[in-house]
Design brief:
By secondary structure, this protein is an alpha+beta fold. Helix content is 53%, strand content 13%. A 4-stranded antiparallel β-sheet has the order 6-9-11-10. The model is unreliable at 15-20, 388-400 and 422-432 (pLDDT under 50).
Length: 432
């Protein structure tokens, strides 16, 4: 009888096996010993008070043993359980183990075996980092990460301080790396306008700092083929091929920052390489594009696969696996934001004035070409049409014949109606 029960529990254990050999072994041994004692007690009862009474005793003891040990790990919200044995984590030296959602059997739960629940769903972590660029501008970055607890090593997560402390440590790590990039004069932006164009560049730097080994290195054969290739930062190569932010177009002055001078030299070097060795230049571009593609995948929640590792990037000392990493928006803050608004408004006004000036000049030239090339008279006619002057038609020395009016209507399109509207109220008619 007890043998049949033991074999049934072995079959149950095999069905629920998740490579947790130590947990399964301890539980199986406990079950075997317990059922053995129950069977011995039943056999003693059978020998002393009768077979029927012994069967009843065996059934009652076995039912009590089973009922006290079954526990359900909920699936909504998604949870997992860390098994304990005598209050200690099982296989703790290797990060422990965890049990999936569903019904599990814990012999003598609360006394011999027990479990701790943890959230197995993806957790979103948003933060804000504010720092000054080397030009003293203030920028705000909104990093955004998604992680899960490493279900194969949950004890690391618990020992790191559980969710509150793990997130605090992770945020501090991210905060430090982002601040380091913003204020860096080598791989960071020199100015706040440059920072606003540097999301992709910043992601490359942050991924290298936080998730080493994720991005592929530039092959040595390519680096060695570039003049002073070992002295060129990856960030400058990314700027060269993406133009965000662009490398200097003109040679920096004597008083300009040394980084600008280096960036200009790098641009010249790579331009020369493109002419002299297009094969190496193409290989370099392909390597940089590959890094950018992986960076974009990580921002979308797809870390590159790692042999023998779970999907995502494991951070073992925190017991988590990062699934998504993004820096979100990079924007000016405080007084810098106000300055950015003023710059934007000034650019818009300048653009409108440029367009207006170009349009006016073009109209004057077209009208003058049609009527003898008199630029002065053509200018006054166009100004009159636009109501930019107060000179009346009787004061114009430019003969507004019917063909002149038609020329204006043709050249200026919708503005011709404005001309007609001006002519009619003043009772003027074109001269024939």
């Amino acid at each position: 009888m007890w043998y049949i029960a033991l074999r049934a529990f072995d079959a149950f254990n095999n069905l629920r096996r998740e490579n947790m050999t130590e947990f399964q072994a301890l539980r199986g041994l406990t079950i075997a010993i317990t059922i053995g004692f129950i069977a011995i007690a039943a056999m003693i009862a059978m020998a002393t008070v009768g077979f029927a009474v012994g069967c009843v005793i065996f059934s009652i003891l076995l039912a009590v043993f089973l009922l006290q040990g079954f526990r359900n790990i909920p699936a909504n919200p998604m949870m997992r359980g860390i098994p304990l044995f005598w209050g200690n984590y099982i296989d703790a030296d290797n990060g422990g183990t965890s049990l999936g959602s569903g019904w599990w059997f814990f012999p003598f739960v609360g006394l011999l075996f027990d479990y701790i629940l943890f959230d197995a769903s993806q957790i979103n972590l948003a933060m804000s980092v504010q720092e000054r660029t080397p030009d003293r501008g203030v920028v705000l970055v909104d990093p955004y990460f998604t992680y899960i607890v490493d279900q194969n090593h949950p004890v690391w997560f618990i020992r790191a301080g559980d969710r509150a402390m793990v997130e605090k440590k992770f945020i501090e790590r991210i905060d430090g790396r982002v601040r380091e990039w913003i204020s860096s004069q080598t791989e960071g932006p020199l100015t706040w306008p440059e920072a606003l164009q540097s999301n992709g560049l910043a992601m490359d730097v942050i991924i290298r700092m936080l998730f080493p080994g994720t991005l592929p290195d530039i092959p040595r054969s390519i680096i060695e083929a570039i003049t002073d290739g070992d002295e060129i930062p990856i960030s400058m190569l990314i700027k060269y091929f993406t133009g965000r932010p662009p490398l200097p177009e003109k040679a920096p002055g004597v008083d300009d920052h040394d980084i600008l001078k280096q960036e200009y030299r790098v641009k010249q070097t790579l331009n020369d390489l493109r002419k002299s060795n297009r094969v190496i230049w193409n290989q370099l571009e392909a390597a940089i594009r590959a890094r950018i593609a992986i960076t974009n995948d990580i921002k979308s929640g797809m870390f590159p696969p790692r042999p023998g590792e779970p999907e995502g990037y494991p951070i073992n000392n925190l017991g988590i696996i990062v699934k998504l990493a993004s820096l979100g928006n990079i924007k000016p803050e405080g007084a810098t934001a106000a300055a950015a608004d003023e710059v934007a408004k000034a650019r818009q006004i300048a653009l409108v004035h440029t367009i207006e000036s170009d349009n006016f000049t073009e109209q004057v030239e077209k009208f003058a070409r049609l009527h003898g090339g008199d630029m002065k008279a053509a200018t006054e006619a166009i100004q009159l049409l636009r109501k930019l002057t107060t000179k009346s038609t009787t004061e114009q020395q430019f003969a507004l014949r019917a063909d002149n009016v038609q020329a204006l209507l043709t050249i200026l399109g919708p503005m011709g109606s404005a001309f007609a509207e001006w002519i009619v109220p003043h009772g003027k008619k074109p001269a024939n």
